Automatic annotation (TrEMBL):
GO terms for biological process: proteolysis. Residues 390-400 have a biased composition (Gly residues). It comes from Planomonospora parontospora. It comes from the Bacteria. GO terms for molecular function: metal ion binding; metallopeptidase activity. The lineage of its organism: Bacteria, Bacillati, Actinomycetota, Actinomycetes, Streptosporangiales. This is Peptidase M43 pregnancy-associated plasma-A domain-containing protein. The keyword Oxidoreductase does not apply. InterPro entries: MetalloPept_cat_dom_sf, Peptidase_M43. Residues 316-410 are annotated as: Disordered. Keywords: Disulfide bond, Hydrolase, Metal-binding, Metalloprotease, Protease, Signal, Zinc. Residues 358-389 have a biased composition (Low complexity). The keyword Metal-binding applies. Belongs to the peptidase M43B family. Residues 158-301 form the Peptidase M43 pregnancy-associated plasma-A domain.
Amino acid sequence: MTESDLSQPPTRDLCGTMLVHRRLLNESTTYRSRRAVIENRALQYERGRRSPARTDVVTIPVVVHVVHNPAVPAQNIGDDQVHSQIAVLNRDFRAANPDLDKVPEVWRPLVADARIEFRLAALDPEGEPTDGIVRVPTGRTSFGFDDAVKSSASGGSDPWPTDEYLNVWVCQLGGGLLGYAQFPGGPPQTDGVVILHSAFGTTGTAAPPFDGGRTATHEIGHWLDLYHIWGDDDGACSSDDKVADTPNQADANTGSPVFPHVSCGNGPHGDMFVNYMDYTDDAAMFMFTRGQSKRMDACLEGARASFLVASGALTAPSPSAPSPSAPSPSAAGGPVRDGTAPGGITQQAAMPGPSHWPAPAAAPGVTGTAGTTGATAADAATVPAQPGPDGHGGPGGHAGPDGEVGRLLRDSERLAAEVLKEIRTVIDMVGGGDRPGG
Ligand code: ARG
Ligand code: ZN
Ligand code: CA
């Protein structure tokens, strides 16, 4: 993708996230291979070959970078607006949002509690106390999806280590862009989500119809590896979101559709436009599905496994947290630094190996994170760490008999081949003729 492409405002049905995804697929062999490994793992979860080991709630430490132009004081949003956004996330990812009752009857059984909570960081990368909000003045009047906001060298704010914190940049975005995210597997120095300040939280500068905090819910869905439910195929019905329980749908829905809206022969219930991964107004999206939750689990137990450990020490219980039925492990058990996740999951060490990313242009705050947004050592192996529900051990069990392992191995290789084929298709679609090694 060229510079001039980057300066074009995105069309409404191709959000910044997919443009960044396609740019990275085009530019980086590392991203392509990491995406293949991540898709392979997600497919194993999706097809029941592998099951989420996690049952407890995971708490993600968040740092919010408020990048603002002093000439426009409104851009320097207040702490209360930031807190209002964290509160929305803690409802939406726990299926504790009060508008859940607007989900059409037929999809209620699919509503998922993703068991993910968010807390503003209580400790900064140096271990000093923080409120988790960084305020950085900029000379720029607005930003695009070229990641300039993520580096102080280009008028933005450098990330905190992206394997320990979810970095959220809040700023003025141009071109009608509400936000964009980086999928797992990308360069650590740009990992995180970017949100337009007036589409962030529920108070302050938040403006209708995007004043429900759902832009962050949607973008963090991408950050946890969710695709748009229509599959980004411009209405072709040929590509989907790789999640079986969201109906195949033609294109993005906008505004506040009336049930049912049928496309791609998905009647009688039609498009699941109430899903956070569609493009409807904030007041018209209410749910993630079980399949999406499982895909987020695949990500949290794979590419983002670093968030399953040690997060307790970086966060403090926040007053804006909901009162979920299950107590947050970090709140209940205190800091966990012993290599065991709160849910009893043994730490999957991130692959330390040499970085294949170009050196960060300017991200001094990022150290030692090179391998962590990509594949884990466990992903690299084709044998699943645990047998799936159709295996003999179940979650937490040990490897099955040889025959079972062999079957899983072959299955895994077949899935990997399928995924590679799909990625090649996407690359061809975006005209990636410069791809080394075909
Ligand atoms: N990346 C999408 C965009 O820029 C975000 C859509 C979020 N939708 C919402 N209702 N907040 O348009
Ligand atoms: Zn999106
Ligand atoms: Ca689907």
